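Reviewer 2 asked us to include a model.

Predict the structure of this chain.
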Amino acid sequence: MDKKVSNNTGDHLANERTFLAWVRTAIAMMGFGFILVKFSIFLKQISLASENHLLSHVQNGQSGLTGVLLIGAGVVVLILSYINYLRIKKQINSNSYLGNNIMLLILAVMLISLSIFLIYYLIGNL
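Predicted model (structure tokens):
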């Protein structure tokens, strides 16, 4: 009597695609944070180099902080997505998949908080 072996290849590939989507999201967040910090430094240098001070950039420190927060949020997203990938991989192998509402809640709260901070930052610089 042959015992049927379940093939979970499609599930593992879907898990990897989901992980890679989170990696792209994390890279985008970190890249945007890096660009924000570098652009802020560029504007500060331009305003200091301007002889007639027609270009003035008020540097209140928020750009650097915002960029660093975005980079940190990207790192947190990357770590959480890897932990989730490993957890789901284990669940697929044991045929006992359970959703991960805690991770999704943490990511949602973190991204909503970061979005509120960015909105506050942008409104303050209008």
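The first helix runs from residue 9 to 49. The chain is about 75% helix and 0% strand. We have added this to the supplementary material.
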